[in-house]
Amino acid sequence: MKAVVLLDFWASPFGQRCRIALAEKGVEYEYREENIHGDKSPLLLQSNPVYKKIPVLILDGKPVCESLIIVQYIDEAWPDRAPLLPADPYARAQARFWADFVDKKVRRCSPCVRSMSSIRNTAFLVPSNVFTHQVCESAKKLWTPKGEAQDAAKEEFIEILRLLEGELGDKKYFGGDAFGFVDIALVPFTTWFYSCETYAGFSVEEAVPKLVAWSKRCLERGSVAKSLYDPLEVYEFVKKIFG
């Protein structure tokens, strides 16, 4: 049996992607909670010396970093169980495109970060220092006091969600009837929607009802339900970090 270890932090949507993928495959693993606000463990620093952040999947002593890469690796390492990416090359390319869209747009515009100092203390929210400035500038606009800047940022965020809703259409999941890669990439962010709504003053469900209905369908899956935390727990975490 392969020795599988996941270095993670409970509230991280990126770590949750990995947890969902492992659960879909029925893979048993050792979960190791990392202290993102204090000294990073020697194992994390050794396993991810470039970015020094979670999540990291370690399989038989070999580390794999970056959540979407980890999910694809899980799919390839256990190919005989619940495929996460479609077999058709074009469909696979489309799935990767939309997962990349989630990383570049939803993560960047979602009000999960508030200031540069907060970002430095929440490594699980930021892909790397390269994106730090971009994330900060987009998120600060959404967290600022009421005004034109915040309204514009909300509209940008909602428009991104509407694009995703358009891609989903009337399908059960993004890949059709089968739960897969894009669903795993996006669904962890839905537990942050309540915090977004509370801080920025808008309703995600009013803006994108089909997307919210999709998120509820995802939560009916055991792999998702056991990997995500209640939005109120996430909100309490957000309050502790951001005030």
Map the helices and strands.
Layout: E1 4-8, H1 13-25, E2 30-33, H2 42-47, E3 56-59, E4 62-65, H3 67-77, H4 89-109, H5 116-120, H6 129-143, H7 148-168, H8 181-186, H9 193-200, H10 204-207, H11 209-219, H12 222-225, H13 231-242
Parallel strand pairs: 1-2
Antiparallel strand pairs: 1-3, 3-4
Beta-strand percent range: 5-15%
What shape does the CA trace take?
globular
- Give the count of structural domains: 2
Radius of gyration: 17 Å
The total of helices stands at 13
Low-confidence stretches: 112-140
Structure description:
- This protein is an alpha+beta fold and 243 residues long.
- It has helices spanning 13-25, 42-47, 67-77, 89-109, 116-120, 129-143, 148-168, 181-186, 193-200, 204-207, 209-219, 222-225, 231-242, and strands at residues 4-8, 30-33, 56-59, 62-65.
- It has two domains: 4-77, 3-Layer(aba) Sandwich (Glutaredoxin), CATH 3.40.30.10; 89-242, Glutathione S-transferase Yfyf (Class Pi), Chain A, domain 2 (Up-down Bundle).
- The protein has 13 helices and four strands.
- A four-stranded mixed sheet has the order 2-1-3-4, covered by helices on one side.
- Strand 1 (4-8), helix 1 (13-25) and strand 2 (30-33) form a beta-alpha-beta unit.
- Helix 4 runs antiparallel to helix 7 (148-168).
- Residues 88-241 form the GST C-terminal domain.
